[in-house]
């Protein structure tokens, strides 16, 4: 045990001297002996101590317990009580001052040294713990301040992103609408050229050929702009579910007729109708977008002579759709990107497309609170499974 600076507060002069002798034998330095609480405080004011040996019963206005309370407040050094009393009332008062140790008189020198060592050890550990707690509190305060600042930065960034998103949506919508009018004029002019070319004209064949190219190009561009407008509304959260009563089979027949008419491939569509209600209440435009995109994709990515199966039926309030082709399929490593905007599989080759169709399908199905899954193997074909809640 290393030497300590010790203050002895004991009103029994003989006991104080015996204690002083025992402590000095262990190389401790006694900075003073006081017989009252007042004198003990005066000594501590002049000389710092490592530990105080405190008798509980002292003469004067300050007893050992009150003196210890003052020492705890002003000096924060360990106090070891010395007392011959072991009654419950005394012990209760002692515990309230959080003493470092308690020694019963008459004391054993060996036990006394052990008590002092434990008192010093306890005090140092408590101070280390307090220091760690203070450091932790400071770190928590700093982290809290940093987090608050980071949250402010994030809020500002999100607000900026929202503003940019709104601006982008407005630009997309305005530009797309701006293109619609001239495209309509171009399409009308191409159709007029075709009409005039029906009369006898030396360049009739060439006029028809180029008019067809113009019309097809305009229709493709018009379809792309329609898709862009759709996502402009989606990004601006302007896609609303607008249910109304509709004839279900009329819509499916229209989808099949449109896809057949617009197909450039010699692909057979096998349309199978299962049990279906005559009318339902749903959003016609969203349903049409879903099945027209899926069916036209199936035909587009099939080869001449292949078949596409299109089956629809109703089961327990759920409209089911299955679209199966035997076309190029989707590479397995690209399955998780299939519904991403502008994504096109690497094996599409020269087949034209915007990469927006399936992302439009997914968005429409989400608005209708439905579900879509698929199976696909490269070179073997793809099957889409659609499930959409409907109201009859």
Can you give a write-up of this model?
This protein is α/β, with parallel strands linked by helices and 392 residues long. It has 9 helices and 12 strands. The strands form 3 sheets. A 5-stranded parallel sheet has the order 2-1-3-4-5, sandwiched between helices. The protein has a 5-stranded mixed sheet with strand order 7-9-10-12-11, covered by helices on one side. Strands 6-8 form a two-stranded antiparallel sheet. The radius of gyration is 45 Å and the shape is rod-shaped. It is an enzyme of class 2 (transferase).
Q: Which key features would you list for this structure?
A:
392 residues; alpha/beta; five-stranded parallel β-sheet; five-stranded mixed β-sheet; 9 helices; 53% helix
Topology diagram in text:
Layout: E1 5-9, H1 13-25, E2 29-34, H2 37-46, E3 51-55, H3 64-74, E4 79-83, H4 88-95, E5 101-104, H5 109-197, H6 204-235, E6 244-247, H7 248-262, E7 268-273, E8 279-282, H8 284-300, E9 307-315, E10 318-325, H9 357-367, E11 371-377, E12 381-389
Parallel strand pairs: 1-2, 1-3, 3-4, 4-5, 7-9
Antiparallel strand pairs: 6-8, 9-10, 10-12, 11-12
Helix pairs in contact: 2-3, 5-6, 7-8, 8-9
Protein name: histidine kinase
EC number: 2.7.13.3
Enzyme class: transferase
Would you report the number of β strands? 12
Beta-strand share of residues: 15-25%
Average pLDDT, rounded to a whole number, is: 80
Shape: rod-shaped
The tally of helices reads 9
Short characterization:
The chain is 53% helix and 18% strand.
